[in-house]
């Protein structure tokens, strides 16, 4: 698999650092699974996509699925660190209207705390 995760926590907020490729099949499913797992243990999950250098349609779909999972369980997911082509793809598809995207980790964490 070409997507790697590291998790940190700040109280009831988990921060998931992602690096590598967020693409069809294994990687996209791994992100959904990891976020769902964290949502069972934390009130909110902040996903850092700063280390993701490639994303395809399945990767975009996984972002939306993560948000749906969070809403179904009464939890929050926010995103930050989108760079280069990943940022362009999210903006081009207008997913920034659906996703809570922030520039910094502290902004994303604060948004989770306000929403809680």
Task: Draw up the topology in text.
Layout: E1 3-10, E2 13-22, H1 26-41, E3 44-55, H2 57-72, E4 76-80, H3 84-92, E5 101-102, H4 105-115
Parallel strand pairs: 2-3, 3-4, 4-5
Antiparallel strand pairs: 1-2
Helix pairs in contact: 1-2
Task: Tell how many strands the DSSP assignment holds.
Answer: 5
Instruction: Give the class from helix and strand content and strand pairing.
Output: alpha/beta
Query: Using only CA atoms, what is the Rg?
Result: 13 Å
Instruction: Please tell me what the overall shape is.
Output: globular
Number of discrete domains: 1
- Quick one: CATH superfamily? STAS domain
- CATH fold descriptor: Transcription Regulator spoIIAA
Q: How many helical elements?
A: 4
> Can you give the mean pLDDT?
95
Low-confidence spans: pLDDT under 50, at least 5 residues?
none
The CATH first-level class comes to: Alpha Beta
Order of helices and strands: EEHEHEHEH
Give the DSSP E fraction (strand runs of 2 or more residues): 25-35%
C-alpha end-to-end distance: 33 Å
How would a textbook summarize the main sheet? 5 strands, mixed
Strand order of the largest sheet: 1-2-3-4-5
Annotated CATH architecture: 2-Layer Sandwich
Helix content bin: 40-55%
């Amino acid at each position: 698999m070409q997507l790697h995760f590291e998790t940190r926590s700040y109280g009831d907020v988990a921060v998931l650092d992602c690096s590598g490729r967020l693409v069809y099949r294994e990687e996209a499913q791994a992100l959904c699974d990891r976020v769902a797992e964290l949502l069972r243990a934390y009130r909110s999950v902040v996903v850092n996509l700063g280390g993701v250098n490639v994303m395809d349609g399945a990767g975009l779909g996984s972002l939306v699925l993560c948000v749906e999972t969070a809403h179904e369980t009464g939890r929050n997911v926010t995103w930050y660190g989108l760079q280069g082509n990943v940022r362009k793809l999210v903006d081009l598809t207008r997913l920034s209207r659906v996703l809570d995207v922030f520039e910094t980790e502290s902004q994303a964490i604060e948004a989770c705390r306000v929403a809680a």
